[in-house]
Known about the structure:
The protein is of the alpha/beta class. Helices cover 41% and strands 17% of the residues. The protein is built from 16 helices and ten strands. It has helices spanning 4-20, 27-32, 57-63, 81-89, 100-108, 157-168, 173-176, 186-195, 205-214, 223-227, 239-244, 246-265, 268-281, 308-311, 314-319, 339-342; strands at residues 45-50, 71-77, 95-97, 113-122, 128-133, 148-151, 180-183, 200-204, 217-222, 230-238. The protein is globular and about 60 Å long. The termini are far apart.
Amino acid sequence: MKRHLTILSAAAAVVIALTVSGCGGSAAGDEAGAAGASGANEVKELRYQGWANSVTLPELAQDLGYLGDVKLNWVGNTISGPQDIQSAATGQTDFGGAFAGAVVKLKEAGAPVKAVINYYGEDSKTFNGFYVKEGSPIKTARDFIGKKIAVNTLGAHSEAVINTYLRKNGLSSEEIKQVQLVVVPPNDTEEAIRRGQVDAGSLGGILQDKAVANGGLRSIFSDYELLGTFAGGPYVFREDFLAKNPNTVRTFTTGVAKAIEWERSTPRKEVIARLTKILNERGRNENPAALQYWKSVGVPAKGEIKDEDFTRWEEYLKSAGIIRSDLDAKSLYTNEFNGLLTDTK
């Protein structure tokens, strides 16, 4: 999989952007200044990117009233976790979310970000599957040699899972390099598989369920089958934003944790109805049809972050040349802003 230069170049771009932007602090964050640390004049409006045709946990938390006086300011959509957290690192947004391994890459590039809560994960109901057309000759890991697999972005969740799957099934590093990953927007992946533009593709969440319901595709493996239940990735903030706006971040993080538990404990039909209402009312010209395939929140209890959320991908990160020594996982995250965890300890 010849993409190490792409990943490292993106990381270098973040370093350059951080330098040019004066470490990327937002104007609002600068205005807060040191006063934010004492709880005064903290930023109360958080800029963020959403996902088309989907409702994020922060958006749900706001609709449920869990964010209090903290408001969300949508600045556009993203189709890539790495891009989303790069925007946060460079001050274009205030927070972003991505695959845990992408957070490691960003930190290795020198970006001063820290994870505060997991926002997605895999379980028996919600997972990412890797699909081929029903009549495809691909049946085992070795059959992927020389084939094209569609992923939403390079250097993120799907790449790490594919690498882990191939390695666990006996492929050598040289054989893994012969498996080509092709970037395809998530909403176009199903069609790309059906048209033969790629040999296989990664499908997750409601897009996966919709594709399966349409018939004609076959699953080769899923990340849940490979790794069991696990947290996939966290939301991150810049460290200077955390220092200046601790109460705002605590309200946000605790609100997201509450939204996670609301989705976990609320009947599926009610969750779908709420998500559909939010999407229809926000006026972004989106299609709510796929929301009917929502099954579970997927995120482990209360969004708590653990060392293994990062160390799980250590071998992949080393093989990709992203890290050269063992991870210091605890330097990557904090649970101190998650009131559902700290208030019970």
